[in-house]
Each structure stands twice: as structure tokens, then as C-alpha cells.
């Protein structure tokens, strides 16, 4: 028997479980360890203020102060997303026929950079080896990605080297520091991108901090004003409610949470190894890819004739149903990765002990084996 | 003595007055008649939901139902702004070297349309006379603007005529219905843009309804999916908190408020005429331009050697200081129009009677005369 993964129905099932749990046990019963929940901890006073014409101005003033503390620079530009800031920077600074040079530690690059280069008619060159980087007269923007998708960090030396090359030719340097603005600083003690000499830096307010999905850019007043104009012209700025959420997230941001998760993930990993479980690590947690889950299930005696996506999704649904732990495969948008990823720096990690988490992770493998061997995969997925 | 208008200090003064009033009398004491306040009437339950990974999905489902009721079509796309939707539509549908044809009742066009045409390397032609409209083989998108900046509405016949011309050549029609989706429907009984035959329509959730600044697009599933891809690629979508605010605004939207304001503005206008005041009308209120204010002040015996922007700003500050009424010149961003515009469909109009408003408007002219003749303009503006 072969089963197709219906992404829409699978997600409906995930959301149905969540809605039911909110009704029965309250929203606090859910343990969201995706690391992707939108922080939006605003008060009713904030909401009243947002309903006046003046509200946006008030939050805009606060974000300036908090944003500069977090990122450095002279001026802050709140954005609808980090991508919005990348798009606006390229439209503002890169002329048709000129070139963008991108240095990143590991491929793939964020697709918005080559895509927007193409939109404005610019050339795009990407380097993962610092010795290869070639910045010539055609170049009008140098982009550095501060961390890889897997949160690997580039060295301070590499940063300074690329910045130096660009500045020798008077070319501005823009750092995509989506997670880096925190992981580089909190865990690796690196300076902010601006303090490393970059002209512009952008970060995501929902990555390793409890803000809404959104972006913050920092830089000199002159460059930020130039980009802000484009941001307003194309509808890329953060609206007032988002800015209010960012202000709250910056106010309560603490590098200690990330530092703790960074340390504790080793303990978590050791405890998993004790159970002969072998996940991949992330800077603040661990993850099982779809095929790792399938292998573990087979090791435990499951008869499986479906692919890894199906069993990873079933795993995620059972983890939610039985332990209230939210991971992406059950509730992510259609097409989302089927990796079960646990972010121990997520604020909901305070709701569960390490041992409880390990037990849930381990028992859920057994539960999926049972579902496989009783031919109940489809009913778990869709009913 | 000549006075320069320092836009930054002027706005700081306006915001200081507002902050003081919020402290002393509470936020409800403010009467915001700008018509531009961001509606963001979400509950603490909504906020809890927004803090889960599932929140966005829940609001996204609700906006589909409410958005289709409001705008027609098969599918809804919530946007960071109406402009964001215009930008995405042009990037998605218009190829370099082809042409955008734009029909609008009166210039100026919204600058985002020609600007994005240029960005993608397309030609752009604009027509204000329906008999001139020329849609040829080069055309890949026809845009119709449903209402002018002054909220003048184009006729159903004109709509149908342009849509017909475009469809004869299989070219999609996109309606910029920023205010039109309400003013055309509520006041002029016109169908939605989609029901008139348009393929896509976009509206602003903060214009003539109590939502946050943002946009909503409606259309066929196929076209919306195509544009949604671009929206996500370039960071133009509405984030979850914004979508939650839009859901609330659509839930409480009532055309009656607009219809009442539309009727009552005639009464307001008559009462102003009785006092020999002669404002310009808008569909849901009235406005005094900077020079109309200056003329009225001179008529009342003011000695004025400064320009209209200065006295209009002083007028707006005194209206706020003495009657708690917020208008743009006092608190708008630097460079904002110095027109004192009263939107009687703003929800805060319920906090004040017509006669109280008229008295405030009238007395404030006298108060500005006094300020002018006592040489106190600068201290009112900045101290």
C-alpha cells in the first residue's frame, strides 16, 4: 500500500489538534519548539496607542534607540522582512549592468539576492572561498552572509578581509545577519556587523529572539535614508503593529537564553546518544531529518513501505497530539521541510524539562512504530 | 520677522501634546479625525494565538472568508500595503519591453505604478479620457484606478468599457481600488471590481475602514497564486499581526458609517457656511488647505507675514491643544500635507457632536488670529 502526502490535509490535521488543545487545555499547554513562533507580546496600552495617528511615531522613536543598541550604526530602518531589506538595498544601490559580489561561508545563498540582482539587471557573483573573492571596478555592492542556513558562523577575520577589499574600492558592504546579529554576538563574542566595519546590516526579528517575523536594518543616516525612500516607494517597510512587537522583543532580548541553549544542547545531545538516538545538532538544539526518522523506525522494527516525509509527518503529529510539542512537519505550510527540529532557545522550552523532552522524543519513535505496524498512518495523518 | 517651518520640531511638539494628553486624560480623550489612524482592535486572545506557530494559519483562514465577502473573487492575498500589491502584480505579470496601460479619472496616478513599470523595463501609458485609451498587442497589463486621490469615483460604464477592451485582447485587468472598494460600493452602489469583470483588485485596509495600514488583493486562485509567489519572494506580504488586525476590521466594517458620514458632511458643510466658512468638501468630510486658512485668518484681522504652511500648522496644533482634535499638519511626518482635513467617517467622530466640532473649527481660527497678532507663532510651533 502506498500513501501520498496530502500537504493541505496534513496541515489541517495539525491545526485541528492545536485548536482543540487551545479549547481544552488553553494556549499555554502548547509547547512550541519550532523556534519560529511569532513573538508579539504587546499590551492593551500599546494597542490603544497603535489606534492613534501618533502611535507609529512613538514606536518608531523607541525602535531607533533599541535597534542601535542591538545592531550599532546611526539609524535603524524597521522592515516587513529581512528579504524586504535585501530587495530595497539592491534597488537603491545597484545600477543595471553593474555587479553584486556575495561572500558566504557555504551555499546556498538566500535566493532573494540573485533574484533581485536579476530584477534590476545587475550581474551577480557568489564566493564561498575567501581566497577566490574578486571585487572589481564593476562592483557596486558587496554582500556578506554572516551565518549559513545551519547557523555556522563566518570568522571575524573573513569579515574584516572582505570589508577591507570592498572599502579599498569605495564599495559599500551589506551584511545579511539574519540570525548572525545574535548567534555571532551571543555565542561567538563577535562584534556587530557595523562595528566590524560594514556599512549596512540587516537582521530578522523572529530568529533567536521573540519578535514578529520582520527585519531591522542598521547603518549610517545617509545610507539608511536612501534605502528608506525605496522601502516606502515599494511597500517594504514594517507597519506600526510590527514595530511595536519588535520594540517589545528587543526590550526583553537576552543573549543568556541563547548562550544557555547553546550549552544545554550538548547535554540534550548526550542524553539522546545514551538512548542510541543520533540526531544532527544545531547551535541551539537538534534535529532529525525525514530519513533519519525512517531509519530509526526501521531499527525499532517498523514495517515501512512509505517515504521519509510520511513518517516524519506522522512523528510530528504524534509528538503534538501526545506531548503538546509543536514541530514543523505537522503544521508547516505545504512544502515546508519534513525535518523535526527542536529549538531549545525557544521561550516555550521553559515549559518542559530536558528529561521530559527526551522521553517524549524517544517514546514518539515507539508510537510511530506501532502506527506503522497497525497500518494506521493514513488515519493519523488525515483523520 | 520671517519664520522657517522646522518639520521635525513641529512634529515633536505635536507628539508631545498627544503624549501629555494620554498621561493626563487618557488615550480616549483624543479625537482622531485624520481618517488615517491605524485600526488595530485585537484582543489578548488574538495575541496569544499570534505567539504560536499556528496563529498565522488561523488568521489566514479567516481573512479568506471575510476578504472574499468584501471584495469578491476566489482567493485573497493580504499585503503589507496596497503599493506592495501593485509592485508584486507588475513584477509577476509584466515582462520587460511590454506595456502597462493605466486608465484613471484624473491625474496624478499613484507613483508606484510608473515606478515599478520602469523597474521591470516596461513601457507605461496613462489615460484620463476613456475615448483615448489605446490597448494594443504590446500591452500585458491594464490598470484601472477606481477613485481619484480626492475620492472621485469613475462610472460603472467606464469600468466596463476598459475591462471589455482589455479582455477582447486577453489582457488581465487590475483595479487599484484603495478607497474605491468601499466608497464605490457604500455610497455609489457600484459592484465590486471583480464583479465588474476585473481579474484582480486591491484595496487599503486603513482607508474608510478601521484596519491597520495594509492591502488586500482579490482575484482568481490562479492569478493570486502567481502573485503570491512574487509577494513572498520579495517580502511584500502582510505579516500575521497585520492580518489579525485586518480580520477584526473586516468583521466590524459597516458601510453605514461611510453612508452616514457621506450624508452628514453636507450638514457639516452647511453649518460651516452659516459661519461664512468655506471649506472644500471630501466624500466623508471637509478640508481647509493652507492658503484657505491664511485667507480666513486675514479676513478675521490677523497680521500675517508668514506662509500658509506655518499658520495651517499652528491651526492644527491649537485644535489639538485646546479641543483634543488630531489633524495631520501638527503630527504628520515631515513633508506631510498642511491641509487640515476632517474625516467624519473616522470612528472617533462618535466622541464629538457636529456642533462641538463646528465650534472648535470656528474658535480655532480666532485663536490663531490672536497668536499671530501677539507674535507667538514660534512658541506655539516649537515650545
Give your account of this protein's structure.
The structure is a homodimer of 383-residue chains. The first copy, chain A, has 383 residues and is an alpha/beta fold. Chain A has a seven-stranded mixed beta sheet with strand order 2-8-7-6-5-3-4, with helices on both faces. Chain A has a three-stranded antiparallel beta sheet with strand order 9-10-12. In chain A, strands 1-11 form a two-stranded parallel ribbon. In chain A, helix 1 (7-25) packs parallel to helix 12 (308-323) and helix 11 (290-299) packs across helix 14. Chain A contains 15 helices and twelve strands. Chain A is globular, with a radius of gyration of 22 Å. In chain A, a hairpin with a 2-residue loop joins strand 9 (280-282) and strand 10 (285-288). The model of chain A has no long low-confidence stretch (mean pLDDT 93). The interface between A and B is large, with 65 and 66 residues.
Strand content of chain A: 5-15%
Principal-axes geometry of chain A comes out as globular
Quick check: average pLDDT of chain A?
93
Uncertain runs of chain A are none
Number of E-type strands of chain A: 12
Provide a count of the helices of chain A. Answer: 15
Instruction: Please identify the oligomeric state.
Output: homodimer
What sequence of helices (H) and strands (E) makes up the elements of chain A? HEHHEHEHEEHEHEEHHHEEHHEHEHH
List keywords for this structure.
alpha/beta; 12 strands; 383 residues; three-stranded antiparallel sheet; seven-stranded mixed sheet; homodimer
